[in-house]
Design a protein that fits this description.
The protein is α+β, with helices and mostly antiparallel strands and about 290 residues long. The chain has 8 helices and 16 strands. Strands 7, 8, 9, 10, 11, 12, 13, 14 and 15 form a 9-stranded mixed sheet that branches. A 7-stranded antiparallel sheet has the order 2-1-6-5-3-4-16. A hairpin with a 5-residue loop joins strand 8 (about 170-175) and strand 9 (about 180-185). The structure holds 4'-deoxy-4'-aminopyridoxal-5'-phosphate.
Amino acid sequence: MARIVYVNGQYRPYAKALIHAEDRGFQFADAIYEVIEVLGGKLVDATRHLVRLERSLSEIKIASPMGRAALLHVIGEVIRRNRVRHGVVYLQVSRGEGRRDFALPDAAVAPTLVILARSQPPAKMAAQAATGIAVKTMPDIRWGRSDIKTVMLLPACLAKDAAKHDGAKEAWFIDATGHITEGASSNAWIVTDAGVLVTRQLDHRILGGVTRATALDVAAKAQMKVEERAFTRAEALAAREAFVTSATNTVMPVVAIDGQMIGAGTPGPLTLRLRSQFHQTAEISAS
Ligand code: PMP
């Protein structure tokens, strides 16, 4: 079946879904994106994702390309046209096209909107969660506004590539004070020896993950103890459990950091509980 991509008002075959050579997303990474999980053809936590999209756009002064209801309609159409049951929707809004100029264009320039959907076999994700993943730590060399979900992802690409060379699936960034900020494409969590869930507090150094927010809801419902604070690499290495959260992975166990085993080197019980209860708490909505 041919893949269909939405680009600026049109549903186009994959190979013909094109944007302008002077699109500012391409020239300057002047763009915002979102990734939303699709479960049984429905959207997971759509409201939180669209609220974050609006916030990111407003932080860098890009106008919303359309209202929330219209956007949900187009997202639903892309899911249906690609017959995605389980997978992800990728959505990108750039500031639009125009002569390459650092200064921002006139506010009247229309933003570029691209929406793709891709299937992701749940069995593959479940298999990965059953064994857990390894992560590699490295310095956080990103800009100071990681709370804005821009497509400026080169540090994350390089970090994940370095992790891959070490047999790790994810990179954990460390700030100048020796504390973990977050994963290259996920939020970082540990479970201390006392059984307390720890994840960094929201600030400009990390993305406010939607999965992080829902995982906090799951933890609250299950009356788990939680601390939102920064933790060091040493604390992570001594942790009982570790995991990452992201829309593509929901809750994914981490069983090794920099080649050192975490806990028993197998997915931890609190992690697996959060994972198994996640979709009961998340907002699941037809689009
Ligand atoms: N941090 C970063 C840097 C990310 O790229 C992502 C995933 N896009 C996350 C955290 C997790 O966010 P979410 O749970 O909304 O997918």
